[in-house]
Amino acid sequence: ANLMERMGQRDALFEARSEYERVWAALPGKGIDAARVALKLGDVNKRLGDFEDAMAWWLRSIQLIYNKTELPPLPVVPQELPSEPLAQRTFLSTLVSLSAFYATTGQLRQAKTLEETSLQAIRALRQPESLDSASPPEALHALYVLHRSSLLSIHLAEVSYALRRKQTASMEWLTGAASSAERVALVLTGLPPVHPDAPESKIPHPPSSDAPLLPAYAKSSSMSKPASGLLRDARRTAAEAWSLMGILSEASKAPGSTERALECYERALGWAGVAADRSGNIGKAGEGTLEAEWKVLWNNYVRVRAAVKGQDSVKA
């Protein structure tokens, strides 16, 4: 079912749904395994355009996670996350799916409510005081939660902009999303948060989209796959957040906005791409970045770079 879902064609999605339904029928209809399958069925039904069934499965997933039939009506979500780590991850994935569904079906106010209450619940969650002192499994779980919060922050920034809220609010959410996603990637790869040659600088370490996982994750049979997937997703999320900040900066027309947009696009390219020769400038899309996405980002960067050079020529 997972393989068919990842293939993505409509026929494959129908097959994936059929396989997930077979898995569901083989389960007792309770517990976290059932909740995870319900989440998958919601996601597949949404991609097939069966929105009512998708909502029903997502709601069932939440009910199974909390082992309750009476919960706050959506889009409000429970403010206390489940105690088990796997249940927390399943719940947060369900919230991300619901957030995207509300936003892409024009239910912007519902999306905003869900995203705000979800982020409040995440902030109330107890996390390790230091990821450096946490065990690799504990750290990996905490990073997963942090990444999901960055996704919800991007959704909230987009929804707030669509609702014509102040642009500064969207920029704040995107800045937080970029910071969280970058932290996930840097921790997983062991890169320092600041450039080693400029320890006093407030500029984070330059992005590296091809830095490998730390051995603690890469050599673990149980953590290598989820850690690799999380690293890929964190890089994509960081690139998206910076790209959106570039678009907003470019559109603001405020003094210095073009230069700021160029900085944002450069940082997005740093997370989305790799050097063509592994030693020069960013030259091609990295792992997990679609060629179409890369072309849009690259064209934005080239256009704004030309505009900045034009401004410099006029000043000279």
Explain this structure to me?
The chain has 316 residues and is mainly alpha-helical. 68% of the residues lie in helices and 2% in strands. It has helices at 2-7, 10-26, 32-47, 51-66, 85-104, 108-123, 136-162, 167-189, 215-218, 224-252, 257-272, 291-315; strands at 273-275, 282-285. The protein has a two-stranded antiparallel ribbon with strand order 1-2. The model has no long low-confidence stretch (mean pLDDT 89).
Topology (elements, then pairings):
Blueprint: H1 2-7, H2 10-26, H3 32-47, H4 51-66, H5 85-104, H6 108-123, H7 136-162, H8 167-189, H9 215-218, H10 224-252, H11 257-272, E1 273-275, E2 282-285, H12 291-315
Antiparallel strand pairs: 1-2
Helix pairs in contact: 2-3, 3-4, 3-5, 4-5, 5-6, 5-7, 6-7, 7-8, 7-10, 8-10, 10-11, 11-12
On the 0-100 scale, what is the average pLDDT?
A: 89
What low-confidence regions span 5 or more consecutive residues with pLDDT below 50?
none
Q: Helix proportion of residues, in percent?
A: 55-70%
By DSSP, the count of extended strands is 2
Question: Element order, helices and strands?
Answer: HHHHHHHHHHHEEH
* Strand order, largest beta sheet: 1-2
Strand content: under 5%
User: How many whole angstroms does the radius of gyration measure?
Assistant: 21 Å
- Structural class designation: mainly alpha
| Head-to-tail CA distance between termini | 61 Å
- Count of alpha/pi helices: 12
What about the largest sheet?
2 strands, antiparallel
Shape: globular
